[in-house]
Design goal:
The protein has 214 residues and is an alpha/beta fold. Helix content is 31%, strand content 27%. The chain has six helices and twelve strands. Strands 5-4-1-6-9-10-11-12 form an eight-stranded mixed sheet, with helices on both faces. The chain has a two-stranded antiparallel sheet with strand order 2-3. A two-stranded antiparallel ribbon has the order 7-8. Helix 1 packs across helix 5. It is globular, with a radius of gyration of 17 Å. Residues 6, 66, 85, 87, 89, 115-119, 133-135, 148, 152 line the site of cytidine-5'-monophosphate (C5P).
Amino acid sequence: MRLLITAGPTREYLDPVRYLSNASTGRMGYAIAASAARRGHSVVLISGPVEIAPPQGVTVRSVVSTRQMLEAAVEEFVHCDAAIMAAAVCDFTPAHTAQHKQARKGQLDLHLLPTPDICAHLGAIKGSRIVVGFALEDRDGKTRASAKLREKKCDVIVLNGTGNIGSENGEIQILHASGEWEEICRGSKVELAEKVVQLTETLVAKVGSVRAIS
Ligand code: C5P
């Protein structure tokens, strides 16, 4: 199958040198891309700025902003059977980006607007393609993850705890569109990535490869 994977943070610039972002390392998305390539799939990884070497056998499209990630994802999704949305997308963007570096004087009030929701966008246009979303929650994990599954029209949501940030190991819990929760799965990020790819293979097999029939 052909997979689109998003990974890493996005950045939203306030001026030419300062930006809003988050602490995502991109490790999970890169582990998923590497695992999918090892399992013989064709992979396009749309990555925000990270310090990880591109996995072997994976096509990487590097982007910076959420808008760029959205445009690349929409372009690639038509050629894919499934999208795995592991990016930690920056939720807000400045209403105005200053043309020059803002001087440090007085108070600076920021007016922020929400960024486009890439996962929800792909969910809305997916047809028979599969969309795997992620949720990283620090409270009410299950409730919030199920709301996201519905709102973004995902086939599954992978719920992460905040303990997964930046660590080698982690735990995930998978929610299916049927409302069924799988058992918590613990392991290294490589093992968890393998689990997410296997699950995506199963879901794509159920609907049949879109590319094989289109
Ligand atoms: O940030 P949030 O918890 O809503 O993320 C849930 C899912 O939606 C994740 O898979 C994330 O990659 C995706 N997302 C996205 N575009 C956004 C926000 C989140 O694709 N602007």
